[in-house]
Structure formats: structure tokens, C-alpha cells
Write a structure and sequence with these properties.
With about 170 residues, this protein is mostly helical. The chain has a single domain, classed as Four Helix Bundle (Hemerythrin (Met), subunit A) (Up-down Bundle). About 85% of the residues lie in helices and about 0% in strands. It is rod-shaped, with a radius of gyration of 28 Å. The chain starts with a helix and ends in a 9-residue tail after the last helix.
Length: about 170
């Protein structure tokens, strides 16, 4: 009796099983893709709502207050140099994000896109260095300068409070 026809069915199953094993890996691969979409969507909102607002507040409120309160001469020149550096870093970080944002929009939608990993590394490393410099150099200096006059510190606090409480109450009769 010829078993060749039966053997062809058996051989076919091994190929099917191999493809099924590959297919079974799909759910595990979807989790990182879902996480990537979530991170990309979250980062878009975070950069717009938090980072850009933070930069604006620093530049409009904190930097202005510290420069206005700094002693004329060497202290003021130091503050100006630091503020110039920090503001320049803000623009550079924002430019870097602007180059990444279109890619993040696509990732958030689940589109396949080649992500500029070097730009992501540049943005994250750049922001860490920026924040470290600001925390170590500028903020202690700002605290010393503004701390010399309680009114200056209070004015900064009030200005930030007013900016953040932008909800307006509309009255009616």
C-alpha cells in the first residue's frame, strides 16, 4: 500500500504548525507597540501643556524677576549670561521636539515610521543637562537674589498664581 498521499498531509502540518507558532508571538509583540503609541501620544500632550508652559513661565516670570532684582554690575551680568544660556537652550530643545513631533504623531496613530533615535537621545540628554544646570546654578542664585526682598519673592509667587489660575468667573444679572 502506498502511504505517499498520507505523508503529504503530514508534511503540510509541520509547515502550518511553524506558521502558527510564529503567529502565537503576535500578542507579545503588540504590547510594546501599544506602549510606543501611548508614550508618543502622552509626550505630545506633555511637551505642549507642561514643557512649553514651563519655559514660558520661566522666561516671562522667573528670569524677568531675577534680572529686575539683581544688583547692578557683576551680579546682573552673571544673571543675564545665565538667562541668555537657559533661553537659548529652551529654543534648542523646542526645535529638537518640533523635528520629532511629526514622527510622534504617526507613532501615536499606530503608523510605521522610522523614528529618529538620535534626536530622541539629543532631546532627552539635552533636557537633563539643561535641568541640571538650572537646578545647580540658576535656581540657587535666583533664590538668593529674590530672597533678599520678601516682596520680590511674593510678587513672583502672585504672578505665577495669577497666570495659572486663568479660569475667569463670568457674572450675570
Amino acid at each position: 500500500m502506498d502511504s505517499a498521499p498520507i505523508g503529504s498531509f503530514s508534511g503540510c502540518h509541520s509547515g502550518i504548525i511553524e506558521h502558527m507558532d510564529t503567529f502565537a508571538r503576535l500578542p507579545a509583540l503588540m504590547k510594546p507597540a501599544e506602549e510606543a503609541r501611548s508614550i508618543a501620544a502622552s509626550m505630545q500632550q506633555f511637551f505642549r501643556d507642561i514643557v512649553l508652559t514651563h519655559h514660558q513661565e520661566e522666561e516671562r516670570e522667573l528670569f524677568t524677576a531675577v534680572m529686575a532684582s539683581a544688583a547692578h554690575g557683576e551680579e546682573l551680568e552673571l544673571v543675564r549670561a545665565i538667562v541668555t544660556r537657559l533661553t537659548s537652550e529652551h529654543r534648542e530643545l523646542e526645535r529638537c521636539w518640533a523635528s520629532l513631533e511629526p514622527q510622534m504623531k504617526k507613532v501615536a496613530r499606530g503608523e510605521l515610521v522610522k523614528v529618529d533615535t538620535q534626536a530622541i537621545e539629543q532631546l532627552t540628554a539635552g533636557y537633563k543637562a539643561h535641568a541640571d544646570y538650572e537646578e545647580q546654578e540658576f535656581l540657587p542664585l535666583a533664590e538668593r537674589i529674590l530672597g533678599r526682598n520678601a516682596n520680590h519673592m511674593a510678587a513672583l509667587g502672585m504672578s505665577l498664581h495669577m497666570r495659572r489660575s486663568s479660569k475667569r468667573v463670568v457674572g450675570y444679572i
